[in-house]
Design a protein that fits this description.
Elements (H helix, E strand, L loop, with lengths): L3 E4 L3 E7 L2 E9 L3 H14 L5 E8 L6 E4 L10 H9 L6 E8 L6 H19 L2 E14 L1 H13 L3 E7 L3 E8 L3 H12 L6 E2 L5 E8 L4
Antiparallel strand pairs: 1-7, 2-3, 3-6, 4-5, 4-6, 7-9, 7-10, 7-11, 8-9
Length: 217
């Protein structure tokens, strides 16, 4: 599958333009229904706002589904500019709602386009990014003396520890990018002189997980 960046979590950012408040809120969304549910939630949260302008992109690249609405702003001054910024950002699977509380000063067509475009650019730059990628779910058993080192090694390879069990030894269940799995196993062998080996639970089973990363890398 294609790897691409998505918002790591819901994130909000507020700005002011000529006394109007603009609150941009972005979130990951992996289906049209998820995006619509998020938009509905924001409409309820900011029910007293002058406008709640929604845009979303589901997927990435040639398979992208996109949507925008001006939500009462003059045609082409809000949703379309914000969607254009979102499409050009490199993100996928993202929903964005830009809330406006009118401050008494009209911005004009050009001012609105700039305000909504700037709001979209600022939230996209600020939101923590993540990668959508295929992973293996695996498990291992190690002595207590190696537990901290094993845990750090998993995190160093951008793996996630999902559960831990402490009995005679420590049992760890974790998830790791498919492309990083072999490298992690080699690291385990080196630090344990070949004693530690992982088992992929239910071979050939993979799932989706968000791996935190930076788009600048």
């Amino acid at each position: 599958m294609e790897n691409y960046f998505v918002p790591a979590s819901q994130y909000s950012l507020e700005s002011r333009v000529a006394n109007s408040r603009f609150i941009a809120t972005i979130s990951p969304a992996f289906s049209v229904d998820e995006a619509k549910d998020f938009i509905t939630k924001l409409n309820k949260k900011y029910a007293d706002a002058t406008h709640n302008v929604p845009v979303f992109i589901i997927g990435h690249g040639s398979s992208m589904i996109s949507h925008s609405s001006d939500n009462g702003e003059p045609s082409g001054t809000a949703g379309r500019p914000a969607l254009s910024v979102l499409k050009g950002s490199g993100l996928g699977d993202a929903v964005l709602v830009i809330t406006r509380y009118f401050g008494g000063t009209k911005l004009g067509t050009g001012g609105l386009v700039k305000a909504y475009s700037d709001s979209a650019r600022e939230i996209i730059a600020a939101v923590p990014k993540a990668k959508k990628t295929l992973v293996h779910y695996a498990s291992l058993e190690c002595p207590y003396s190696l537990y901290e080192l094993i845990a750090r090694t998993i995190r160093k390879h951008q793996g996630w520890i999902n559960s831990e069990s402490f009995t005679d030894n420590v049992k760890l269940a974790y998830s790791i990018s498919v492309t990083s799995y072999d490298e992690l196993q080699n690291a385990f062998k080196e630090l344990s002189n070949g004693r530690i080996q992982s088992l992929i639970n239910k071979p050939d089973q993979v799932s989706l997980i968000l791996i935190k990363d930076s788009m600048d890398k």
